Amino acid sequence: MGLGWRGAGRTFQKRTEESWYLLVTLLLLCGFWEAHSQTDDGKSVYFWETGPWGRCMGSDCGPGGSQSRAVWCAHVDGWTTLHTNCDQSQRPSNQRNCFRVCDWHKDLYDWKLGAWNECVPVSARTFGAPRQFTCSGGEEGIQIREVSCILTSDGSPAEDAICEYFEPMPRLEQACLIPCPQDCVVSDYSPWTSCSKTCGTGLRNRVRSILVPPLFGGSICPNLTEFQSCKPGPCKGPEGLYSLRVGSWNPCALPQTRTARQVKRRKGKGQGLRERGGVKDPETRELIQKKRSRNRLNRQDSPFWDIQVGYQTREVTCIHRNGSKVGRNLCTPRDLPLTIQSCVLSKDCQVTDWADWSPCSKTCVDPESPRGNRSRRRQVLQFNVGEGADCPPLEETESCEPQGDAVPPCAIFTWRTTEWGDCRVDLLLSQQDRRRSNMTGLCGGGLQTREVYCIQANAEILKYLNDLKEKDKAGQTQRQQKPSVPPLLSITFQITASRPVENKLCEGPIPNKSQLCQIPCPIDCEVSPWGAWGPCTFENCDDQTGKKGFKLRKRQITNEPTGGPGNCPHLVEAIPCEEPVCYDWELVSLDKCIPDDGNQCGPGTQQPQVRCINSNGESVDSSLCSSSTAPESVSCEVPCSRDCVLSEWTSWSTCSQTCSSKTVEGKQMRTRSILAYNAGEGGALCPNSSALQEVRNCNEHTCTVYHWQTGPWGPCMEDPSTSLLNTSAGARPSGDSQGPCSMGMQTRKVICVKVNVGQVPPKKCPDGPRPNSMRPCQLLCKKDCIVTPFSDWTECSLTCDEAGNAMKKKQSRKRLIIQMPSNGGQECPEVLEEEKDCNIPKTCPGFRWKTHKWRKCQLVPWLLRKDSPGAQETCGPGLQTRAVSCRQLDGALADINECLKFAKAMPTITQRCQLPCQDDCQLANWSKFSSCTADCVGVRTRKRALIGRSKKKDKCKNTQMYPLSETQYCPCDKYNAQPVGKWSDCILPEEGRAEGVTGMKVKGDVKECGQGYRYQAMACYDQDNRLVETSRCNSHGYIEEACIIPCPSDCKLSEWSNWSRCSKSCGSGVKVRSKWLREKPYNGGRPCPKLDHINQVYEVVPCQSDCNQYVWVAEPWSVWKVSNVDLKENCGEGVQTRKVRCMLNTVDGPSESVEDYLCDPEEMPLGARESQLPCPEDCVLSDWGGWSRCTLPCTRTKNRERTAYPLRSPGAGRDCPEMTNTEPCSLNLNCFNYFYNITDWSTCQLSPNAVCGSGIKTRMLDCVRSDGKSVDIKFCEEMDLEKKWQMNASCVVECPVNCQLSEWSAWSECSQTCGLEGKMRRQRLVVQASQGDGRPCPSLMEQWKPCPVRPCYRWQYGPWSECRVENVVCGHGMRYRNLSCFVSDGSSDGDGSLVDEELCSSLEMEVKGDKQIRLREGCILPCPGECYLMEWSDWSSCISICVKGVGVDFGSVQVRSRAVLAQEPENLLLCPDQMWESQPCTGGECYEYKWFSSSTPNSTSPDIWCQRSDGLNVTGGCPAMNPPLDNSSCDPPCFMPKSFCSEAGICMCEEGFTEVLTSAGQLDQCAPIPILEIPTAGDKKGDVKTSRAINPTLPTTIQPGRTGRTWYLQPYGPDGKLKMWVYGVAAGAFVLLIFIVSMIYLACKKPKRPQRQRQQNNRLKPLTLAYDGDTDM
């Protein structure tokens, strides 16, 4: 695009640069001279300088602001000096008034944009630049416009600075493109016509047509006709110089005599009727009137037509070949054509004035689409007749707005939803979960659905306004009845549901039809283990008379179960007992043994320490135990120095039985051991071994256990006292629909149960812990069913069968349940949808034209045609008319305007007719064709006969002229069906589709897979391969084939494994369970969760192990085994042993032995000990007590200790050993720090019956010792450590929601009304995308299937006949064409096949959208010797005015032309001018034009022609600057490819090729050469991406797109040998190669030790980029 002007521009640039240097030099000289002269003057070396104006400042907005600028005095050399040096009288102002702009001015001022001026070439705006030589695609130009700031209110101009404050000034100029001139392009000539004469001298013609018209100042079209004289031979006789010429028909006129005669005849008829009417009786008159009414429609008395039959004439003259008229007698005698004929007087269509405008279609206020339409009509007063003007449009429409003050608002439609349905978990289950046998009890996350419907939001307000309007019209509104508040504010609406309307009326996003919901999972009641049995106590201590006693044991609820404690198991069990007491003494401890009588040793007593407790073990006042015997003092003994010493009794062991019976008793035991033996004499003896052990009975109560058992609470029943308060909640908000309304009562069954037996009488159980059997409850409100009103009845669309009868249809209406009943509310109605037959007419409404009988054939009056040769008074050609009326389809008379609007084209009301003369042959009508015996076999005939006198006339018996029979082959009804097109998608049968919840399709619930069918269209062809209806082939239009839509299969995992054991036996650990993959998903099934490398998924939760779960239990020490035996003293060193076991700890104590590894080995007691057995008189101490605890912090300066106490005092002279043992506290040995350790969160834990939803994640708090060992939590609790962690947190497991799809839409209309390629489609939408691990949406969201093949029928013109002029050679005649019915398959290939017109009878009479059917038109048959214009050529193909490859397009155009044909050489000067016309079109093709040449062996000059890129040879269009020249000037001619003859007569090669010469110096061939393009200075295309060959023989100035000089290095000389510079370049390249090798060697050589450079020499030099101006860089 830009290549065309750059060459000229750069030439101008070079010249301009030279001029510029000269101009600058002159200016400098002039400036120097002027400065010198002023310096001599001494006053002008200083001048004033000003800075830019500052910002407009001021207190008020508008024109009251001011702005200032700097003003200073400067020297001519540029430096600033004092103000006094400058002329003060010429000092510029430093302040001026201005317009201070504020933000609110933005709405007052705006830019006014003028229109763009004409595009001016860039070269025209450049001073002295020559215009470009060639145009390539278009010339670059610039167009400008005016932009100014204005005050928007009145358009007055304002300062530009005001508008610039808010928005920059729009651009004032823009680039544009001026199209290149488009020359006229014409086609090749047609072949020569035959000679215009058979003898003598004539003309041959050949013509061509215009393909592209001249545009944008291109050259005009050449002559379209070429003439050539021809001489077939000498004429044997005189040439035919004269011929009859028929003129055109004159306008139709009425003869004067006919009008006068009609008036007289009408007067005579009227008088005669009146005279004769007087003698007729009434009955005769009535018969006459009926006959007139019966025939009225057959007469043309309609007021819509004024048909007057007149006559028209034409002239027949004799014409000489040179075009002059001569006498008719010079023409060869022959039958003269008709010169007068009947005609219809032309009458233009007459219409009434426009009626008033109809009311505006928009009768309400709608801000989104405020305008409607209104129309007005006019009626036809009289139709056009003959050649009269057609009727103008009878209806016009314009946009409008509703008029008036009280225009109501438009109906507003909005979406409404029903109540959410029940929350269902089963909708989220996978295929695997659905196969579970037990689906009850599901909880957690679920899905609930609802229906969405459309309502009219403001229906009540519009109804209210309409009622007010009706009251105003009726005059019933009285002043005192007017409300005291505005009407719209005083409306009270009954809370009812709105009527649903069609969903298509609602716009905007559709509310969600489904949402996630939560069914709370029930929390089961958890209870603690049973506590110990309490004492025997009364049921009621306040009433102890005659009551038996019970022992009770209890347990507690350890969580918060769903529904409260009522759903928990019993918490109290009772055992009957004897001798109950309510209060008793409890032994707390025994005091130290005090010997009697003040002795130091010997027998003594221990005083008990007691307290009074109740049956629950709580301390009470001691007076309450006055009735009970307090524990007495216990006898004891303090061993003397020579006595045997026994240890304290151990605690009683766990009871062996929980209860006692006749056969089983509970026992418990305690033991003690010998600590020191007695002396031989005088000391108390040690008891035998049996005395070291005591056994007692325990749990002596019987094993008969009773408890109260409760049933489930019954429903909350209405309390009669509050029943009136429980009103029905009809329309409560959904969020509050389950709220309480009043109090009711609940009951349950309470029975006494004996364990392992069953129900027993209630008296067996204690009354105290008896549960309640009745409790108050909150009654939920009754919810009535709420349904919407019925929607309006669906429309009854009228469908007609082939016979025109209306087909019966049904219409329906429905209502929706928007709230389901609950809590005993009113039930929903059973009928939600109603259906009834449509009230439609029996026959389809429609209108048609009815034609009546043709009237009598009217001839031209005999007075006018009696002078015509051969004319007869009662016969000849004439004209006849008929009446046309408008009817409904059932035959009833209708208004003619209805037919104009809805019926097809009006039938003709006039036609030519012929009244046969006596000499004419008259024949009867054709009979019907005879029947065929079989299809495609034999022939069938039809006949007609001569009638009247024609039977006796010989000329009528000529069967060639008047055939009396016709024969044709019998029709051949053979049809062939064959498939067309592709197979459709696999489509499931409609009956196989289930409906999901509330009409919403949820993938997985609806049958979306299985066996379906795919379809292929069938086409039916007849024996002539014409497309016919498929029913002819006994086909319904399809081939069906079963197909399978594979069902999706979800990911399948195994069941959860059992939980593993806790990873730690003390403190916090983890436990794990897993699932493994059984089957991967396929066909779009639910995806698997994230699996590990062995296809397993894990769930890990923390666990807590009680550190006291397993304990060491040590038996009593054995008897001493003295190693150093002193039989006399029985003392000395000895060993004691005992058995230590690991046991499971329970509430009742250690119960059973377990493996030792389960107990902490550090805590294991010693199983043996060595010690000194005390001798008589020795001090005997008790066992060491426990170590005291080291206080924190642990330091070795602190100690811990343990103590013992003396059991036997030493003898005289002996002391007791140390009774206190100490050791230093050492960290992590005997002194420890403790701290809490928090575990990680567990995975989100759901209820076992939940799939997703809300859950709980937990973590554990662990107590850790400073040496890293987990210990019992009590150690941390004793230190009062801060607990700042939350142990439980709510969490959510994302629900696996399957993709939810809408219903399939109805099948669309066929994409084509007929043909083979029609398709019907249907879509479905994603209602909700999949979530979590739900099943993803399928990719198939649209399905298609072929339409049944229907033949494409159309009306199509046949070719125009030749121009016919009856019985003469030339003149004005007529040409005709037929309108035929064609059938095709809808494809663009082929024109179709001719079929019977009946098949097109249902189509509108139109051809390619044109409803004006023209089957005949006037034409002119040129007379011999005339020069005339041919008919219009066909429209050329649509051609784009563009430049190939540049992307420039100036629109598309097509053209047609009329060429001139001549027959006589003498008349060429009388020929008319050729004609052409063009019209715009769309979709034009973009062509290129190139010169082509070829040579023939026997020709000295090759053929040269211009060819379009589609292969069409044309004239014009090829570039004119470098056409191939005629080879005739080159000797020998240039026959080589890519060669041409230059102006110097030498064969040269085309652009991009070099000449290879023979030894004789002649051109041998044109070889393609590589071209090195060397950019010169100023060439901005420095980095040439593509080198393009350009003809080097052209001058530099005409090479497009080049500047300066560009050298082309051609290695071959004219003799074909290498030029000398090639050798020079080769030598230079060799030297350069040696230099490069040397430099590489020096670079790779090991360098010497480098010297350190100084810092200042190591500076980074700035990087300089060489930029040659190319924009690509």
Helical coverage, percent range = under 10%
Q: Please state the average pLDDT score.
A: 79
Instruction: Specify Rg, calculated over alpha carbons.
Output: 61 Å
Largest sheet: 5 strands, antiparallel
Beta-strand percentage?
Answer: 25-35%
Give the helix/strand class: mainly beta
Strand order of the largest sheet: 14-12-99-98-97
Number of strands: 103
Please give the alpha-carbon distance between the first and last residues.
Answer: 21 Å
Query: Low-confidence segments, ≥5 residues, pLDDT <50?
Result: 1-41, 263-279, 476-495, 724-737, 992-1005, 1523-1527, 1571-1608, 1650-1673
Overall form: elongated
Total DSSP helices: 11
Give a verbal description of the structure.
The chain is mainly beta and about 1650 residues long. Helix content is about 10%, strand content about 30%. The protein is built from eleven helices and 103 strands. The strands form 39 sheets. It has a five-stranded antiparallel β-sheet, with no helix packed on it. Strands 19-18-16-88-91 form a five-stranded mixed β-sheet, with no helix packed on it.
Short description:
By secondary structure, the protein is mainly beta. It is built from 11 helices and 103 strands.
Topology, element by element:
Elements: H1 3-41, E1 46-50, E2 62-68, E3 71-75, E4 80-81, E5 95-100, E6 109-113, E7 120-121, H2 122-125, E8 139-144, E9 147-151, E10 157-158, H3 160-166, E11 173-178, E12 185-187, E13 200-207, E14 210-212, E15 225-233, E16 242-246, H4 256-277, H5 282-296, E17 309-313, E18 316-320, E19 325-326, E20 340-344, E21 350-351, E22 372-377, E23 380-382, E24 395-400, E25 413-417, H6 431-434, E26 444-449, E27 452-456, H7 459-474, E28 500-501, E29 514-519, E30 537-538, E31 549-554, E32 572-577, E33 583-590, E34 594-595, E35 602-606, E36 608-614, E37 634-638, E38 645-646, E39 666-671, E40 674-676, E41 693-698, E42 706-710, E43 717-718, E44 728-729, E45 740-747, E46 750-754, E47 758-760, E48 774-780, E49 782-783, E50 786-787, E51 810-814, E52 817-819, E53 833-837, E54 847-854, E55 858-859, H8 862-865, E56 876-888, H9 896-902, E57 910-915, E58 939-943, E59 965-969, E60 976-980, E61 1001-1002, E62 1010-1021, E63 1027-1028, E64 1038-1045, E65 1052-1053, E66 1067-1079, E67 1096-1105, E68 1110-1114, E69 1121-1122, E70 1132-1137, E71 1140-1146, ...
Parallel strand pairs: 16-88, 44-49
Antiparallel strand pairs: 1-3, 2-5, 3-4, 6-9, 7-8, 8-11, 9-10, 12-14, 12-99, 13-15, 16-18, 17-20, 18-19, 21-23, 22-24, 25-27, 26-29, 27-28, 30-31, 31-32, 33-36, 34-35, 35-37, 38-40, 39-41, 42-46, 43-45, 45-48, 46-47, 50-52, 51-53, 54-56, 55-56, 56-57, 58-59, 60-62, 61-83, 62-63, 62-64, 65-66, ...
